[in-house]
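User: what does the whole thing look like in 3D?
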Amino acid sequence: MSTVHFFDPSIQLGHGAGGRASRRLIEGLVSPALGIWGPSELEDGAMLVVGDERLVMTTDSFVVSPRTFPGGSIGELAVNGTLNDLAVSGAAPLAISVALILEAGLASEDLYRELEAIARCAGAAGVSVATGDTKVVEHGRGDGLFITTTGVGRMHGKAALGAGRVRPGDAILLSGAIGDHGMTVMLARGELDLASESLRSDTRPVWPYVEALLDRFGPEVRWMRDPTRGGLATTLNELATSAKIKIVLDEGSIVVHDPVRGACEILGIDPLHVANEGQFVAVVSAEIASDAKALLRSLPGGDEAMVIGEVEAAEIPVVVAVSGYGGSRVIDMLTGDPLPRIC
Amino acid sequence: MKLVDEFRDPARIGELAAAIAGEIRDRSYRFMEVCGGHTHAIYRFGLPDILPQSVELIHGPGCPVCVLPIGKVDEALTLTENPSVTLCAFGDVMRVPGSKISPLEARSEGRDVRMVYSPLDALKLAAGNPRRQVVFFAIGFETTAPSTALTIMQAARMGVTNFSIFCNHVTIGPPLRSILETEELNLDGFIGPGHVSAVTGTKAYDFVAAEYSKPVVVSGFEPVDILESLYMLVRMANGGIAAVDNQYTRAITKDGNQAAQAAMAEVFEERDSFEWRGLGFISQSALKIKRKYAAYDAEARFSIESIRSPEPNGAICGEVLVGAKRPEDCPLLGVGCTPESPTGALMVSSEGACAAYYTYVHRGLTVAG
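Assistant: Here's the predicted 3D structure for the full assembly of 712 residues, as structure tokens:
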């Protein structure tokens, strides 16, 4: 039964930021209204058993401003984001659908460029765009282009994933550096007068890494998620809550690229709260942790994979980061949108 | 980022913690960090974990968002009821609840509220949108006041007429004095603010040592800075020395930033009195725009009516703000008051003592909400 109550009189922007407010909206209003009780086994997707086949279905809407940014665009996010939700559910992608909401006045050239990006990313992942839909809304009733994609995938034969499988002593494995995507988009909005030439969104499909882990380690991989909106902090807090565990992070082992660190320092934002679009975090058994890290590092683009912490038994679900000198702090979920601090 | 790494070096931090422990005598040490940035850093870096138990840090009033009265947010939001007004504010202010809604919620409701990183961005917006009335909701201590002053001077030079400032700037000296006048307060010294002091210089705190016989060490914001400052304060407390010292020498001088002080003197004058959230009215504690620049004063342009919105019941913000009580003493902490739906002033900004305590400590002691 849901114990979360949603009394907010109207929907605010923070309800969409992926943090605590989003969670209250989903658990307190959306799920009960739709008759969905209790946590889904997979969190990022739903499992559909058809005969002997385990299929996974997931859906996601994409609203990003600006539409293009260094390293990617809304079209790439729409494909990679949905495929990554399938991947961290343990599923190889089979097909996606694409639904477009277009605002009257959108330049055809811009639409074509995004469709090309969608086709390119789907093709690279070996997935077909199976079906789609297009609607046009009045000028002023949309932000140019909104995209909803739905993906269907086939569960990996050796996958046995779920928060319920996480045990004290397990290790936390992170696929690479955090914060590149969120900070790239924040700076690309051009409101902050900050710029970095080397900063690029990390949008990419994570299935090749996930597949390699599952092929080799199967059920030793306990749980996986992609830390998108709300960042790694929010994803790990959700795990701690649903698995009723304590997560202890070694703060120094989490890779944050210098431009992201610098911008976060200036803006007063914790990189752990910044969105990623090409990373995943996995809980794996302690026995295979270093081999799993080595495997990811042997793959192209996996050279920044790290074991960043471990799972402990706990009465109170919590995520804690320990610094190199022994200071510790609680890592909370993101509260609303990350807003720069000035004063 | 090399600069930051040097000041977060675990080996150096360990040495400093040991050095402080070596100076500790059989007594207690109560130091107030004046600035919210320090409060945040102290919790973020987990410094209480590595300090001797007899060193207690009291969180002070230097969080500009926390001391902004609810009524001032309400006043700013009444401006947005005028459809030709664009209200610009720092990110810090966006989530601060007025008596009904926050600026962020006003934006969700379709009012024209923008987040800016600098008042100059608001001026740029005004210059590019001559039909809009752009108002910048200015808050902060001497840290942000000079940039507001320079923006007004720039607007005057450019001849931009659709731009004004709702000025709520405050100064750091008067609330410090007000705290020092509190009788039950039992403090052994102060960690002086870093960013404010870059403008005012360390001389702004001379009165603390001279008139109240308390030591002040102006500090940077990294763990090494704060520990070094505490080491200096412990030694000063042991020796009974009341002086103003400067740990943050890479950014702070005795006389401060003369150009910034000159800009402030050009544009601002003292208000007779200003209300501080949690502290009440303090005389000569805030800045208003001089008559010479009245064309850029939103209070003059829009005749903003003063709104006094009552503090929520049950909160002990005022006592926490002056160091008389700690965040964990408040019955509302984590129950009726969280960073997501703050009731009291100190939960509003991530630099507020209660928000820092709640975020980095309290959440580990209770079941996640």
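In plain terms: The two ends of chain A are 43 Å apart (CA to CA). The helical segments of chain A are 20-33, 74-88, 108-124, 180-188, 207-217, 231-243, 258-267, 289-298.
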